[in-house]
Structure formats: C-alpha cells, structure tokens
Amino acid sequence: MTPQMTEQSTEVVDMITLVIDGFDVTVPKGTLVIRAAEKLGIMIPRFCDHPLLDPVGACRQCLVEIEINGRAFPKPQASCTIPVEPGMMVKTQLTSAVAEKAQRGVMEFLLINHPLDCPVCDKGGECPLQNQAMSTGQGESRYSGKKRTFEKPINISSQILLDRERCILCARCTRFSEQIAGDPFITMNERGALQQVGIYEKQPFESYFSGNTVQICPVGALTGASYRFRARPFDLVSTPSACEHCASGCSLRTDVRRGKTLRRLAGEDAQVNEEWNCDKGRWAFKYATSADRLTTPMIRDADGELRIASWPEAMAVVAAGLSGKKAGVLVGGRATLEDAYGYSKFARVVLGTNNIDFRSRVTSEEERSFLASKVVGSSVTYADIDRADSVLLVGFEPEEESPIVFLRLKKQVRKRGLKVTAIASKLSVGNAKLGSVFVSVAPGAEAAAIATQELTAKSLILVGERASESAGALSAVVALSDRTEAKIAWIPRRAGERGALEAGAIGNLLPGARSVADISARIDLAAAWDVEALPSEIGLSGEEIFAAANAGEIEALVIGGVDPLDAMAHHDSLTALKQAFVVSLEIRPSAVTKIADVVLPVAVVAEKSGSFINWEGRPRAFEAAVADSLQRSDLRILSMIADEMSRPIGLASVKAAAKEFASIGTWDGSKAEFTSVAPSALPALKEDEALLTSWRRLLDEGTLQEGEENLAGTARQPVAVISRKRALALGVVDGDAISVSTEQGTVVLPVLVEEIHDDALWLPRNSRGSHLLATLGVASGALVKVVKE
Amino acid sequence: MTTLTPVLSAHWDEKDSFTMAGYKRHDGYKAAAKALAMEPDEVIQIVKDSGLRGRGGAGFPTGMKWGFIPQGDNRDHYLVVNADESEPGTCKDMPLLLANPHVLVEGIIIASYAIQAKRAFVYVRGEVTHVVRRVQQAIEDAYVAGYLGKNIFGTDVELELVLHVGAGAYICGEETALLDSLEGFRGQPRLRPPFPAIAGLYARPTVVNNVESIASVPAIIANGAEWFFSMGTEKSKGMTLYSLSGHVTNPGQFEAPLGITLRELLEISGGVRAGHQLKFWTPGGSSTPIFTAEHLDTPLDYEGVAAAGSMLGTKALQIFDETTCVLRAVLRWSEFYKHESCGKCTPCREGTWWLVQIMRDLESGKGTAADLEKLLDICENILGRAFCALGDGATSPITSSIKHFREEYIAHLTHGGCPFDSHASTLFASAASSGRGAGA
User: Fold this and answer.
1) Contact assignment for B347 to A106 by CB distance below 8 Å
2) Are residues A168 and B344, on separate chains, in Cβ contact within 8 Å?
C-alpha cells in the first residue's frame, strides 16, 4: 500500500492495488470491488448497489469470482459488498464463465416475475433492468409458469405510486429513506416472492426527499404521480440546470418535451447535492406553465385598467415614468446573479441611486451590516460541514430552509456522530432527526444563548436569514466567531439572495463586495462602468423604500419578483405602491401587478440561461431548458429600458452580464466594518400572551409551488405548537383549535404540544390557514394573544 | 457395534426430569459452580480441548467461536441461544428443552461466564408453547435458586437470561436474521462481515450457539474435556442426538457418539417399518442432500457424511421406504422453502417460486424430460448465489433426488402423473402396527 494525497483533502489515504480481469488497478482502501472495476471501465451489472447507500448484497446481480493471494472464495461473491484487499484477483463476467453464468441466472430470476409491460412503463427506455436484461439476460424466457401479480398501482403518498409487480425488491427506496433522509416511513413487508414495499398505517410517507426514491428505483415500480404516463424518455430533451427554489444550490436535470417541462431530476454534483434533491426542487415547476402567465407588456390606462401594449410603447411609458424621478429598486431573492447585476447596475447608472434591496423579507440594519462585512465574498462549503467538529444553527432550520444542507448534516451525524446544536424556540422535526442539542430560547433571546456557546476553530456557525429577526443575534454570532475562530456561513432561503448580495443589489454594497462608503471602491467601479461617478449616499433598505414612497420622497419603483406581503408585512407597502410610479417585472399576476403602472413579463428560470450563487458562494450556472422561449430575461428588459432612457447599461445578454461581472472582480480593498447591535429587552407576558416564532415550511403556499397538488399532499399539516405548560394553562390537547391574534388579525389552527419554549408559540409562516405577515402583520418575536377557540 | 451413550437424554424417562429437583438429583448445576471457580479463559480452553463442534448444522468448533469474543474491551457481550428449530425433520432441541430445560440454563451460565456476557438470550420458535412454558419455568427457578441474576452462585458474577419467543419464520434460525428479529426488526440475514463475534446483537460482540451445543457444555465441565474427546471419531468428538423419523419402527431421539451409522441406528430403533425396505433418507434434515440404502454404513459424523456428498446438518434422519414417491416428498420440501424464503435475495426468492411450479408440473405428469435439465440448471443458479444458506438448502433435495432417482422423475412423465399410491406411504396404511417409543 502506498499513501497518496486525495484531491480534495490533505488526508493520507492508503492505496491498494488489485487485479481485475487481468488489469492492475489501484484504489483507496475501503473501495468496493464493483467500483474498482468501474475505474477500469468494467461494468458489472447491479441493482441494489448504490454508491451513496450502505452495501446490502440483496439482488446478487453483481456476482464475480474472487481469490485473495491464491485462495479462491468457494462461491461467487457480490462485488458490491466486498472491499478490495491487497493480493486480490477478481474475475468478472468478462473473464469468468462462472460469474457470467451466475449473472445470467440472477437476471433470469429477476425477470420471471417481472411484467412485460415495458411499452407502457414510464421507465421503459431509461430502465436499468431493461438495459441490463439486454446485456446480461437471455433473449427468450425459459419461464412458463404463473407470474406474481398485484393490484396496481397503490399510492404510497400523494406524489408516489407503487406498481408492486414491477418491483425487484432491491430495497434502494427503503434504504434511502432510512439512511439518507432519516424518514423510515416505507419498509419491506411480507416475505418471499410476496415481499413488497409498504407504508405504515399510522405514519404516511411524508418525507421532503421522497422523490429521490423514484429516481433511484432501478425499475418502474415507483413513479411520480405528476409524471406517470406523461412521456417517453426518448421524447424528452434533457438540460443540466440549477434549482431556483433555495440556496442549497442543487444541480438538476430538466426534461422538456415540446417547450414544456415535464419533469426534473436531481443532477449529480458530488460537492453539492451528491445525487439527491428535495421534493420541492423536483416537483414544483408548473408555475412556469400556468394559464395566468404574463406574456405581453401591459400599461395601466387612465381608467385604471391594465391593457396589453407593445414593447416599444411600454418602454416609452416606463422611460417617461422613471426619468428624473427619485426612485427605488426592489428585486426579490429569486433573481439570477446576472439579473441581479442588471438591477444593481440599472439602479446606479440609470436611476442614479443606491436605493436597492434584494431582501424581500423581514430584515434589519444589523443584517445589512453583517452581510456587507462577513458574508459577501466569503466561502464556506459543504466540505466544511464534512470536516467540522461541531455545527451551531442560528435562526436556521436546515430541513425546512435548505434541505440539502440538512442531508449533509444528517450524513455526518450518521457517519461520525457530528454534534449539531440548534438555538431556537422550538425543537423542529429536522433537528430531532439530527439529534441536535436543543438550546431552547424565548423568541428574541437568541443573542444571550449564542454568547455562551463553546466552539473551536474547526466549528461552523450556520446562520439563517431569520437571525435578522432577533436583534443582537447576528452581533452575538460575530462575537462568538471572533472569540472562537469558528467559521460563519450565512444560508438564506431563496436561491438568488447570495448572488444578489455579490451583485450589490443592496443599499450599502456595489457589485463585487465594493462598499458604497468606500470612495476608492466607487471610483474603481465607475471606471469599470465608464461613468463619471456613482451615487455615494448609502441606499435605503426595502422597508425604508416603502416608507419613503409613503412619505412621497420616492416617486418611482422598479420591482422584480417581490410580493410586498412576503416582506415587510405592512399594508403600508401597498398604499406606498399606489402613490408611486411602479414598474413590475413579473411572471404571473401578483399584488404588485394589480397596482403597477406598467407590467413587463419576464422569463422563468427554465426559459433563460444564467447562474445562481448558492450559500457557499459557489456559482451554479445553467442553460435555458426550454429552447426558443419568447420570454425575455429581467436583464434584457432592464437593458432595453436603459437604452430607451439613453443611459445604456450595455448588458444585452446574460453572457455579457456574466462576463462583465467576472471582469470587475471582487474588491480587494478593505471590507465594511460590522456594526454591533445590542439585543432588545423581552416584553413581559400576561398569561394569555406568547411570543410568536415561525418559519416557512419547505412545502407550503409559496407561489412557486402553486398548481402542484400532489406535492402539496405531502406537506406537513399546519398546526399551532405550544408547550405542555401552556396547553395545561389553556386547557387544550392536541387537535383542539386555538386562536392567535394581533391587533391586525387572527389565525386559528389546531394545537400540537411539542418541545417548545414555554413563552413561545410556533406557527407556520406561509401555510394553509396561516399566512402570518398578511394576517398578523408579524412573523417572529412579536407578542400575540392566545385563546382557546 | 456402536452403543448409545445417553448424556443429555439420560434421564428423560424420569417423570420430573424437567424440574429443578429432577435436574439436581443428577448433580445439576454443579458444573456451573465448578466453572465459576475457574478463569473464563480456562473454561474456553476446556471446551476447545473437548473438540465440541456446533450442533446446529455447520459444525464450527464451539470453543473457537467463544475465543473470537474480544476480551477486556469494556463492551457488553451477549450469548444468544438459537432455539428456533425449524428445519423439516429436525426434532432434537425441542424434545431436549421439553425434557430437560435446566441443562440449557446451566450451559448458558457456563458459556456466558466464559465469554464474559452479563446478558443471555434464548430465541425459541413461537409455535412450541409447551416448550416455552417449561424453559420459562426453568429460568424462573434458576433465578430463585440464585443461579441467575446478580451474584450468582454467591460470586460477583452477574447474568440476566431472557427468553424471547419468535413469530414463526424459518429464516430466523439463520443466526444474523435471528439477531435482527431479536432486536425487533424483520428477520432477514445480515451482511457479513462484521460477524456476530465482532458486531452481533445491538452491534456488540455476540456468540450465537445451538441449544444442543450449549446443553453439551455442563457435561464437558463436569466430566472433563478428555471424557468428551474420547467419544466420537477423529475430528467429530463427543455424543450427539440423532433424530429418527418417518418409516421407522421406533422413531425418536437416539444419543450416540458421532460416527455411528444408520445401519446401527436402525438396528437399535427396530428397523424400517415392518415389511418394507429403506428407499432414501436425509442425514441432517431437508436441506441436506438425500442418501439411499448404499449409504447405510456411512459414518454419521461431519467428515463422513461430507465425504459421501451430503452434510451431517442437524442429524435429522428422516427414513422413507419404497412406498414413498421421492418427487412428492421433495416437492413438499420445495413448497416449504418457497413459503419460508425471506425475500431478501433474488435467487432464493424467485428461484424457489419457480422450482415449485416446475416440480408441480412434473408431479402431475405435465412436464417434459427437458424440465429436469431446467430444474438442475435453476438449482445451479441458486446454489452458492443466494445471500444465505437457506437458498442452498432449497436445492439439495432436488439435485440429490434427481441424481439418485432420475428414472422415477421420468416415470411421472411416461405415466402421466404419479405412479405411486400415495396412501401406501402413510402410517395408517401400514399393515404392521408397530409400537412407537420416544427415544433410547
């Protein structure tokens, strides 16, 4: 064995040389024979084997002959279960008649009970069983008996159907659910040839990751309800793409037929999502083809109604409306890096302002300072999770808010008992699955708990966007990191936020981590952009932009992909919109388009190229999956407006924007200093009062999930979570309804008693019957009144 | 002429043999006291020296198995006794536990002490309620007597013994499936390595032994390794229980030194039922390739049976006379394997499903001569390809019966069905009413 350095780490790995079919191959110790053979280009057929699941050796398809230092195993061995050893000699089907016959025998067994329904099976054409039956099977069956049949199909969830007679019982699905997702809600039932995948009577298969079981099923036994019988794989055009739903940064494959996305699969990226994705990323894409998509520009007439307009007319109206006005730009967290860069440059060059904010959510000035000083330009990666000695979660629920981060944490917890600590008011399902140490705090009291944590320089602090909702929490994180040298990573929920930060779509930063306050940074960028000067005043935050519009200090707004109720809660925002001249760049009608003076339709992610920057700071580039779309990107439209206003931004295409952004580079001068903020005092509670805490669930009533009923069927039920103590005080038990009110409104939900801080009450932020910002006007840390219904 | 050597079965004919009093009358629990006065490694050495090999079928040296348990590792160790006796024809452990449950409890005490396990389990099949009750009572009595629990036999040794009743699956006799079942999961065999000695029950070092293996230990401790070693053949030492069933005048348990022949056992048991001749027999249960009259003088020890092309297995000698249709007998076994296949691996799950269909066709005369070759080829594709030995066992009766009785298979095809009078092979058809005793 010779030590070698692996590419990604400095750990020394013992290498082992063995012989497969007469060829020497050298692989790291611990490698399975089946994968050592792959390295030589020798494909041993297999079904139950999956490189990311524990070996099981159940299907027996990968049998080979093995001898070690001249001593042969008496029987053929499953190459997916045997680690390589020095002196090992392996004969696969290519050089061993025994292995060849064993494999043919197993293939024949697998086929005797498998239906010959390939012509109507979704998997036909991309089926490992079909393919390997061609390579390893007989042309004709020797079986003349009765095939095993089952009633078909059965729903194992609203998303997934099971055709039991097609199942070859490789147990990939059940092993994935248990080992990777930590949701052991499906298991094998019965025995012998009647063995089958089954669900528990009392626990439905409601896993956020269930779609992966469909993807790794090596036959057509598991099918997605929304894709079943929709297409043949050979009619699909596949495009590697990036997921637009969250900041995890999954690589995807988008399958399109005749201009319509029919399905999405997890792409392979060992450094990011490995081979997995979440059900939202897989199954929420119909918003792009919904009947109410905006397809033409619209202008609000004198009678207050929107009417269809031509692009030239719309451009003229926009140019006239924006010219010479004090303006602000709001760009939602879903823009691509290139689009965000377009908005950022448009605000500075065309509108002459730093009034821009990508954060359409609850924010704070503390957060803006944190982002500009600690996050922009930084890089903490998934590999840091793999190496961390412990992970602290602050204002962040990985399973709900960045599911692939959850899977990576789960993997490390399972593999090496990684210690995860969650500072939160409620112990979530995800944190329970991670075995996290739950540091229970009252909403708003996070800072004090953060301050007492003990971390090392090998620790990670994963900070969610909700940390901004607790004054002083981010300051405590910075102090903790300064004290312990633990690394900080900021993990927002939306896919575009990190890219928008890098693109400077925020009031205190210019593109490439250039501080607005830094004159040399401004001069550097002005030179790059070939403009005389850039606005020097720190821009307003989103919330301040609405307030300024209300006060008449801002007269025009350019808004891309923002739901005002998503963000700043206040109905004020809608009145603000009514006063100003509003240009809305949108894909579907929204609260903003209802008021906007001009509505401009934009392309969805599948219709354009671009890139996202995930939470790691890693670019996730993608090409247009739908070819020849007539929809234009935000960037293209902003460029058209700029031209119309005779202040060109010179970003006619995504490529041009990407090139320019890369060329201006990241500022190598000093970063902004972080301004620390003290925590606020918690209010005193009366007996019928609680402090609200909430987050968005992965599957909820987000607009990008609209029209996906099968997906919505596995969403967790909306509940109001209270502690046992409060339940006793209220005299309620699980399932009883309670009402939660502020002055603005009331939410009524069934109670669930769980592990939660006694002063806290948890509600889902945007689920059925629980739209907190719209109904209550608050999200977290606020005082609410709790009454039994 | 080899004679019987009743040790385990020595007192089965005493009415109270299953009680604490009955057991103690014959020096019960003295061996345990003796063992506890030794060092654990000394006990292991004695068992090694005795030459005791596993009585569950595979014949692995028991002392060596105990020696695999890492000592001084500060982890819990477990002893698990496999009492899930389910192999067709096998009927030694259940009578033993019915007649003398205390010998198992005493064996467990000694074995647990040797491997330094503070907790032991007996996994007994669920169908045998009367056996469960007697073992349960024996365990309770042993607790009362201070042989189990804390400070057993007045020492600082501790041992908790748990009786677990299985739910009736043949696969749970496979040791790793048994461990899964004991842990509360579905009984399906585990991937090895890790072997139970390293990561067994609850991922702790575990010894899994057959009932008879453990029950043999008290006598070895009491009488010494040499006493045990003096019985048997060169590599198969000691006495063991042979279970005769089927067309034999006096079926039952016969305890004799390893290496006795069927000819001798038949003489002792009154021979094949009156008026009939031996046709075929299993040396160790349905999973072992069948023998015929030409194997009457094969020494029934591990090496002798293996040399003749079969396995000693559980020493379940099922005797079939000339009235029996071999195809019919084998089909019944095949149906058993199909029913009991756990479903984990392809060859066993699908293969047994297929084998039964072909065998049924053959029995009813619907098959062709080519089906025989197909049958053998399918068996070849199962044997050594399945996840555990259950798949191998399913092929043994088929391949061995075709080897010895190919003409009889063909006769079904030419005859258009079974040429035998199935009634003639039943016991109630037997003209001679033979007495039926229980054991030696």
Assistant:
1) yes
2) no
